[in-house]
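Backbone-to-sequence.
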């Protein structure tokens, strides 16, 4: 049995209030990731999310006004970026200690956990997305993605981002196939 993973990129149709909430949330999340990144850099490259959570959780929630799940996600996001950097450095026979400054998160975006931070509601016709203030329901371009939302695909942690003034939710979807070679991708 083989897994096939794809990323579906769903365009969100947001009003001005929703756009402002997403902008605020993604900026706070970006700043929190930079805060966690600085801690990792200053503390011998601690890449264990659970240990970071134990030390930084309350401070990240308070300082950046993040809800619980978003605060948790900052630790996974920052450590994942360092692990990716570490993999690249190993190929050049270097270690993370070679870095002169912490990994920097420039683009406002945030990772949303399925069924906690985002979910499909009303027969998958709307997305319910948690923000810093409240949950909001958003229309999306969904006809093209309906085959991935029928329950046969497993949806992962999504990334909320803004590209040229348009909000998107990038969701990894995974499905097991018995005979992978016969599946046309």
């Amino acid at each position: 049995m083989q897994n096939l993973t794809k990323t579906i990129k769903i365009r969100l149709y947001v009003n001005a209030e929703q756009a402002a909430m997403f902008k605020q949330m993604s900026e706070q999340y970006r700043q929190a990731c930079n805060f966690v990144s600085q801690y990792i850099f200053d503390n011998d490259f601690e890449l264990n999310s659970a240990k970071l959570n134990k030390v930084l959780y309350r401070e990240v929630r308070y300082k950046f006004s993040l809800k619980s799940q978003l605060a948790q996600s900052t630790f996974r996001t920052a450590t994942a970026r360092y692990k990716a950097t570490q993999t690249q450095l190993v190929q050049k026979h270097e270690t993370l200690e070679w870095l002169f400054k912490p990994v920097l998160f420039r683009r406002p975006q945030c990772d949303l956990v399925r069924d906690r931070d985002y979910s499909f509601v009303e027969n998958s016709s709307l997305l319910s997305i948690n923000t810093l203030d409240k949950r909001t329901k958003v229309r999306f371009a969904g006809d093209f993605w309906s085959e991935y939302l029928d329950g046969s695909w497993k949806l992962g942690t999504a990334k909320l981002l803004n590209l040229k003034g348009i909000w998107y939710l990038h969701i990894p979807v995974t499905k097991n196939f018995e005979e992978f070679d016969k599946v046309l991708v």
